[in-house]
Amino acid sequence: MADTWHAEMVSKLAGFWTFIGLNIGLSLIMTWVYLSTNRSILAGMLLHFTSNFTSQLFAPTSDRVEITHVVLMLVIGLATCILLDRRSRVQERRLTEAVRSA
């Protein structure tokens, strides 16, 4: 197992935690895409494919680059969650106002 990508991921300084961080960030972004495209699974599949393709195309060259990538994905994922929350609160407020005025 020493020659597999799994072993390389664990042996690197940031390996396991960057893998977890990237998955959390990507999950948040994929949730936003899914909800923003009227629950389209195709959009989520295309985003997943694009993520896999570009991660192999632009492989990180050092731990610093990999950690920067993880932080960027987490920030983007958290920003999408904040936008989703804000949008849902605005929709809830409009619905509440419509019910009260009826």
What does this structure look like?
With 102 residues, the chain is mostly helical. It has one domain (5-101). It is built from four helices and no strands. The N and C termini lie far apart (66 Å). The mean pLDDT is 80.
**What percent of the residues sit in helical stretches (DSSP H or I)?**
over 70%
SSE class: mainly alpha
Number of helices: 4
What distance lies between the first and last C-alpha atoms, to the nearest angstrom?
66 Å
Strand content: under 5%
Q: What value does the average pLDDT take?
A: 80
Largest sheet: none
Overall shape: elongated
By oligomeric state, this entry counts as single chain
Total count of domains: 1
| Number of extended strands | 0
Spans of at least 5 consecutive residues with low confidence: none
Q: Cα-atom Rg, whole angstroms? A: 18 Å
Order of helices and strands: HHHH
